[in-house]
Design goal:
Blueprint lengths: L7 H13 L2 H8 L3 H15 L4 E4 L2 E4 L1 H21 L12 E7 L1 H18 L3 E7 L3 H9 L4 E4 L10 E15 L12 H6 L1 E5 L4 H9 L7 E6 L2 H9 L4 E5 H11 L2 E3 L7 E9 L6 H20 L1
Length: about 300
């Protein structure tokens, strides 16, 4: 295959198909007919000697070759957009963009929602949408352009060099209990703390972090319930003597809203890093860079509160 065989418009089509997984939606995104997109896909299959996409019901599923090409295609198109972009200085007040941010509900509450409020004030046509996501699937979503940022509070491993990471701040753990809880009046010792009922939220590593410290004293948290969300954990906490341990920045919000008690931990400060992830293809995107800076500023505010 020679470079002269590849029309840049074909890469635009490939990128749209990777994002939309549909000929029809890709056509709508690019303002072309579905037949034009199908013709471009046929040419791409010939150039790369691969099916690139196979149909699964109403969706197009990328092949291994298409997934391999995706990061490079994103970088090429981002570079072309940067090259052709007018030299007018970026002004967030004039920008019109939609950004998808993948995060657990913790990330949504402590960063995405404050970002939305901030954007409404200074860049009303720049919008931040939340999408659920955590763990390895976030990396795939970033590569495919399905999300533009990801907020990591799970400390997941990142083996991918094309994913950039910015540490926003170190949060710490805080333990909450219902009003009138027996442990609220005085700080428990490690043994009493461990023996109390604890709620484990699946999306958070908080119990594991507590157990790491308790293990030094040959103790472990007595887990009374494992729940799928912070909301489920909150409702159980309000209706029982179980303890709920969360990142401090989120605990601050919940204890104010629901009149919860803060239970003193006998283990000292245990930190949990909060990180921002994005794909390298957006490095030269001025609006993306600006939103990234806004998230970093909000992170610094949360870090000071923590």
């Amino acid at each position: 295959m020679h470079l002269k065989e590849v029309d840049a418009n074909l890469l635009v089509v490939l990128d749209a198909l990777l994002v939309d997984a549909s000929v029809t939606r890709a056509a709508e995104r690019l303002g072309r007919s579905a037949s034009a997109i199908s013709h471009a896909l046929a040419k791409l299959r010939e150039i790369f000697a691969d099916e690139l996409f196979v149909r699964a019901g109403q969706r197009l599923v990328p092949t291994a070759k298409a997934l391999q090409l995706a990061p490079t295609v994103h970088v090429i198109l981002a570079g072309m957009e940067s090259l052709l972009r007018p030299a007018k200085p970026f002004d967030p007040r004039d920008a019109e963009r939609d950004f998808a941010i993948a995060a657990s509900e913790v990330g949504e509450l402590i960063l995405v929602q404050p970002l939305r409020l901030r954007l409404e004030q200074i860049a009303p046509s720049v919008r931040a949408g939340w999408m659920p996501g955590q763990g390895p699937e976030i990396i795939d979503a970033l590569r495919r352009g399905q999300c533009h940022f990801a907020i990591d509070v799970e400390s997941m491993a990142l083996p991918a060099p094309d994913i950039h990471v910015l540490k926003l701040y170190d949060d710490r753990l805080a333990t909450l209990a219902r009003f009138g809880h027996p442990l609220g009046a005085q700080g428990p010792d490690a043994e009493a703390f461990a023996a109390s009922d604890h709620i484990a939220v699946n999306a958070l590593p908080t119990i594991e972090l507590l157990d790491r410290e308790l293990a030094k004293m040959k103790l472990a948290c007595n887990i009374s319930a494992r729940v799928s969300s912070v909301l489920a954990g909150l409702l159980l906490t309000l209706d029982s003597n179980a303890l709920l341990t969360l990142p401090h920045s989120l605990a601050l919000i919940l204890e104010r809203q629901f009149s919860l008690l803060r239970v003193a931990q006998p283990l000292g400060d245990i930190s949990i890093p909060v990180r921002l992830l994005w794909h390298s293809s957006y490095d030269r995107d001025e609006c993306h860079h600006w939103v990234r800076d806004e998230l970093a500023a909000l992170g610094r505010q949360s870090g000071r509160a923590a």
